[in-house]
Amino acid sequence: DTGVSQDPRHKITKRGQNVTFRCDPISEHNRLYWYRQTLGQGPEFLTYFQNEAQLEKSRLLSDRFSAERPKGSFSTLEIQRTEQGDSAMYLCASSRPGTGVIGTQYFGPGTRLLVL
Amino acid sequence: DQQVKQNSPSLSVQEGRISILNCDYTNSMFDYFLWYKKYPAEGPTFLISISSIKDKNEDGRFTVFLNKSAKHLSLHIVPSQPGDSAVYFCAASAYSGANSKLTFGKGITLSVRP
To answer: Closest chain B residue to A34 measured between Cα atoms?
Structure first.
């Protein structure tokens, strides 16, 4: 169990640029989640996948955000035309399918984005 | 609207004493609750969870209590250790976590004094 990994760990960009983050889930987990955490807040749900299917998207996920999981393994989260309000920690989590403790979500270390 | 509330932003306790972290929720559809611990520059780490069919779950030094009628849960850490100093998030999900997006509170910063 190597855990959830995210790349890059930190990203600084200028307003208006596009950025892409990658998440590699725990190998036997077929569910993958993206959350965003801003200062002083808890993580907020953005979207989740079961295998390659994107099953739910939050209204926080504006049309500048797109997430993919093309082969049901790793996932990417792209933000187009970044704004200063996009500055946050972007967290990825993965889980097995199932209820209760079986479906516990395990988080990666996050990607901290700063938009100047 | 904040569906999961952690109203106390911080808590300081002496090493060896009990830490009690509280959480309230408003959504009656929530039926599964979790506590995560977070150190700076790391992702949240799962601690313990409880289903709404139970009122208590224990794992080592950590015990979670659920009061469904009051829509309140608490995490007890006994005895508290300096390494427990971190931010603790309460989270909730509906449908026993089967789908399942988590709704988090804002977190409580616990400081355990040696």
So the answer is: B101
